[in-house]
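Lecture notes, part 5. Sequence design as translation. It can be helpful to think of inverse folding as translation between two languages: the language of shapes and the language of residues. The source text, in structure tokens, appears below.
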């Protein structure tokens, strides 16, 4: 088992280009320096309602009023 190194346990990726996220945009989403001014469009759930962006202990995630919390990866796959 490898020893954990400080700062390498979680690496955020930019949702626009998959580079390492270094800063946050207006919405609080971690993004790279190139997409600092970019904003995520309205994301839709599988049920068709709009998702809200929330921030938690493990980063940002999406919440649907009808379905509850949604997996970020699944949301990006549906709204590509």
């Amino acid at each position: 088992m490898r020893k954990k190194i400080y700062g390498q346990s979680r690496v955020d990726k930019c949702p626009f280009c998959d580079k390492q996220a270094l800063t946050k945009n207006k919405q609080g989403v971690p993004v790279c320096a190139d997409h600092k001014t970019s904003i995520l469009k309205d994301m839709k759930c599988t049920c068709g309602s709009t998702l809200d962006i929330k921030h938690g202990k493990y980063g940002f995630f999406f919440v649907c009023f009808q379905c509850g919390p949604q997996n970020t990866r699944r949301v990006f796959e549906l709204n590509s």
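The translated text above is only one of many valid answers, since several sequences can fold into similar shapes. The chain has one helix and five strands.
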